[in-house]
Amino acid sequence: MSTAASTPAKNYLNDPQGLRSWLLTRDHKRIGLAFLVLIALALALGAAFALLIRTELAFPGPTIVSSGHAYNRLFTLHGTIMIFLFILPSIPAALGNFMLPLMLGARDVAFPRLNLASLYFYAFGMLFFLLVLAFGGIDTGWTFYAPYSTGTAGPVLLAFLGVFILGFSSIFTGINFIVTIHTMRPPGMGWFRMPLFLWSLYGTAIIQVLATPVLAITVALLAAERIFGIGIFDPALDGDPILFQHFFWFYSHPAVYIMILPAMGVISEVLSVFSRKHIFGYRFIAYSSLGIALIGFLVWGHHMFVSGQSPLLGMIFSALTFAVAIPSAIKVFNWLATMYKGSITLAPPMCFAIVFIMLFGIGGLTGLFLGSLAINVHVHDTAFVVAHFHYTMLGGALMGFLAGLYYWWPKITGRMYSLAMGQVTAVVIFVGFNFTYFPQFIIGSRGMPRRYFDYTKLLDQHPEFTFYQMVSTAGGFLFVGGLVLVAFTLLRSLWNGKPAPANPWGAATLEWQTSSPPPHENPPAPPVVGDCYDFEGFEFDETIGTYVKTP
Amino acid sequence: MDSTAAAQNADHPEAPLAHVADARVLVAVFAALIVLTGITVAVSYFDFGVFNLLVALAVATLKAGLVAAWFMHLRYESGLHLFIFLAGVAFLSLFLLLAMLDSVQYHPDIQTWEQRK
Amino acid sequence: MTESSPHGEGSNHAVSPHAHLAHHFDTPGQQYDSARLGMWIFLLTEILFFGGLFCAYAVYRANRPEVFLDGHRFLDKPLGAANTVVLLFSSLTMALAVRASQLDRRKVLVCLLAVTVLCATVFLGVKAVEYKHKWDHRMVPGQARIEAWFSRGPKDVTPGNEFRPDEAYVKEHLEKAGYGNLDKEGLARAVKNLSTFMSIYFCLTALHALHVAVGIGVMVWLLVGAARGRFGKSYFTPVDLAGLYWHLVDLIWIYLFPLLYLIH
Fold it and tell me: Omega of the bond prior to A60 within 30 degrees of 0, cis?
């Protein structure tokens, strides 16, 4: 166990060696790293589509696409790639896979081969979506609403198959995490001594295994309808299109909690470490992870208020939607209480954690607007909704992912990046993000529809739309520039970064007790597992450049 | 922490990892399942109106319970597996109930539209 | 990790449970518990997967009871009942097989697994008979499309009139069931209802049959392993897990059979 600031000669990256050992690896650390690389590629691809969309919308009329049909394909690909290939797997599959066993002092996850299968399923799913791209894309929206999706031309079946396969990747990860947390905790680590990141992964895994199968059957039925013409969802064939929406959103709403819960887990870790203060309200945060997971299953109809869903169910879902905000709010209050009178260090992970709280706060609050039936009628299918989910998914989940990436980068790669650059990226991203999406709240509430490429006809009533769209586009480019800067900062550390010590941040969770990067064989858990949020006795030792715990 | 008592003794090479089912019990369960199948088929030749569905589901649930309890050993294991099984059924019921409630509510609108066609 | 044994029954007394212990587990008990828990969670996903189809069934049944009133008359109750018995029996043999593996009874295990595979194959055979019957009377959803792929079938198929069952057969069957003489309009309505019923019937039973087929594959793999003496008192987890899967397949059929074949 090395605390000296030099990269250990043998670590999981070079031990064992050879392509075969990587392709057939059962080491959760290698699998996590492979996921990280792939989802970063997905992010880049999704961001490219985002910039195309923003370029198109900067000017009222057709700008780079000449038909709505082409524009449909842009936002469909943006949405499907970002949701299925980036955000859903991002924290659980990349960071979770890497850190979960280390945080438990375990040698691996419960089912290492299943983990490898999850990786390969993800890779195949990605391949299918690349094929969809190669065949010209699809125009259904990421929501695949029937009967349009069952009748429209294009490689829709490939997309359905891709989603189906990616679903399995998600389910396998979920099964692995639940079992690992149940059966492989070290002696002395009861449920309430686990790091909160693991609680969040546990809640996420519950959603993954309960909700994803319903998505699977939904796309299977869509495929059957498309291939065989069976009439389950198509009204022309005596089907029920609202039933489709029930099916789709039963998964897709809990899916957003798959996206946000792990990010919240990261925030709990980061805030505590960089405030040098025990997390406030551990049990509340732990229970709220479960609460979000469970209540999140009760609110899917809030995507369907204007679909033809009955008013009775509209009321039920609206009330439950207000309820689901409560556990999230509980977390925010506990985080703020953690920071209060803490000794704050604005390292890049902390910057992103603070950005998370601000942006997710806005995103979450606007969710309440949308959950209110009367308001929803006006803002459904407008840019208001687009802004809401980008504030929560990007301002929330992505910021959590970046915070986690900055936090655990030294552990994963054994390198320290430039902290100053990291802080700069946080500022650039924060500013760029707000310029991109805040105007969309404004124009959305004034009636700017989503999924429209040509808003010339709206300019009579709302001439200001062009200005706001241009601001949004400028912000978008700045934001993506910030992401590029993040990639640059982190990747540069691989060449120029100082070797990372075992514990550069002074954290008390178990993954920091092994070298950076960790060895191939995980070290065992210590005989006495202490409180993972107790920072007493942690001193920064200048001579070796790391935090050490003085007994 | 969540292992069965038997499994916790499993460092002992001779101790069983899990409960071994009694063959006679298994055959008895099978016989019961056949009897119940016979009942459900026989009952289907009569018309009990709205109770048709309830009777069929009740018998099916009883059969399912027998399979789960004895064939799948739920009776002899920690409550976690039973909890998982019931949780699945509970969430499924939630989905079914709300979807059905909704469709029953908006169906009259569809019927009106169909009649007007 | 196969072990041969000098003993007649192929018992594994000579090998300690730790021979099967994966490197990341501390005790065989932990490994076994993890495997069982993982399998139960997988079963949970299967419940939710099929559950979606049951939801479609429920919604249609609640709103269009006439679909089911007519539809189930075209299913062969005796065949369905026979299949139920076969599947239940295979569940018994599977449960006994798990028991045999726990007691180191290799020959018994192999026999029981073989019987289970046989029953499962019979089940699929009966389903094939039923499906063929539907095909012959043109009651399979998408039949016209499938035929068109092979350049067969009627030439005047357009979306909306694809489902064209053998009308004489439908009429005769419904009239025998006491519907009285069906006029053109009544027949058209019956055909529309039948289309929806057949869609649901085929989705449910085909997905189930697919799971049976996968089960057969798994059990054949177990059979090979059992014949080689891979499973015994200290390591029977794969048999146990496959058993759980097979019982779930049985469970689903326990609900499918009355809901599709019996209720009216």
Answer: no
Q: Is it the case that residue C17 has pLDDT exceeding 80?
A: no
- Chain-chain contact of A242 with B3 (C-beta, under 8 angstroms): no
Query: CB within 8 A of B46, min separation 6: which ones?
Result: none
Measured CA to CA, the distance from residue A450 to residue A443 in angstroms comes to 10
| Contact predicate A542/A122, CB 8 Å | no
Question: For the CA atoms of chain A, what is the radius of gyration?
Answer: 23
| A217 vs C55: CA distance, rounded Å | 11
Partner C, chain A 23-82, Cβ-Cβ below 8 Å:
none
Length of chain C measured in residues: 264
For residue A398, the model assigns a pLDDT of: 98
Q: Is B34 at the interface with chain C, CB within 8 A? A: yes
Report which residue type is found at A368.
L
Q: Do C30 and A184 touch (CB under 8 A)?
A: yes
- Single-letter amino acid code for the residue at C237: T
| Partner A contacted by B101 (CB < 8 A) | yes
> Which residue from C34, C44, C59 is facing A110, i.e. has the nearest CB?
C34
pLDDT of res. A72: 96
Nearest-by-Cβ selection for B13 from C89, C91, C234: C234
C225 vs C232: CA distance, rounded Å: 11
Does B39 reach chain C within 8 Å, measured CB to CB? no
- A85-98 confidence digits (pLDDT tens): 999 999 999 999 99
The C-alpha atoms of residue A377 and residue A330 are separated, in whole angstroms, by 29
**Is residue C4 less than 8 Å (CB to CB) from chain A?**
no
pLDDT digits 0-9 by tens, C173-203: 888 777 777 788 888 888 888 888 899 999 9
Residue B95 contacts C where some CB pair is shorter than 8 Å: yes
DSSP A166-178: HHHHHHHHHHHHH
Q: Which residues pair with A538 in a beta bridge?
A: A549
- Cβ–Cβ below 8 Å for B102 and A310: yes
How many helices (H) and strands (E) would you count in chain B?
A: 4, 0
Phi, psi torsion values for C257, nearest 5 degrees: -60, -55
pLDDT in tens, B27-60: 999 999 999 999 999 988 888 877 888 899 999 9
| Side-chain half-sphere exposure of A411, counting CA atoms within 13 A | 25
User: Inter-chain contact A110–C142, Cβ cutoff 8 Å?
Assistant: no
**How far is A246 from chain B, CA to nearest CA, in Å?**
7
The answer to whether B18 and C237 have CB atoms below 8 angstroms apart is no
Distance CA A265, CA A513 (A): 20
Q: Is A337 exposed, middle or buried (0-12, 13-18, 19+ CB in 10 A)?
A: middle
**CB pair distance less than 8 Å for C142 and A230:** yes
- Written as six digits, the tokens of C188 are 């058209």
Tokens of A9: 């000669």
Distance from CA of B34 to the nearest CA of C (A): 7
Measured CA to CA, the distance from residue C56 to residue C40 in angstroms comes to: 25
Predicted local distance difference test score (pLDDT) of residue C16: 57
CB C22 within 8 A of CB C10: no
The C-alpha of A395 sits at a distance from chain B's nearest C-alpha, in angstroms, of: 30
Query: Could you say which residues of chain A have pLDDT below 50?
Result: 1-4
Q: For residue range C80-136, list pLDDT tens digits in order.
A: 999 999 999 999 999 999 999 999 999 999 999 999 999 999 999 999 999 999 999
CB-based contact (8 Å) between B57 and chain C?
A: yes
Q: Where are the alpha helices (DSSP H) in chain C?
A: 28-63, 65-71, 77-102, 106-136, 143-149, 167-174, 184-227, 237-257
- Which chain B residues contact residue C259 at CB under 8 A? 56, 60
Read off the pTM. 0.93
**Across the interface, which of A182, A216, A230 has its CB nearest the CB of C203?**
A230
Q: Which of A182, A190, A243 sits opposite B103 (nearest CB)?
A: A243
Pull the structure tokens for residue A212: 């994803």
Q: Look at residue C241 in the predicted model and tell me its pLDDT.
A: 96
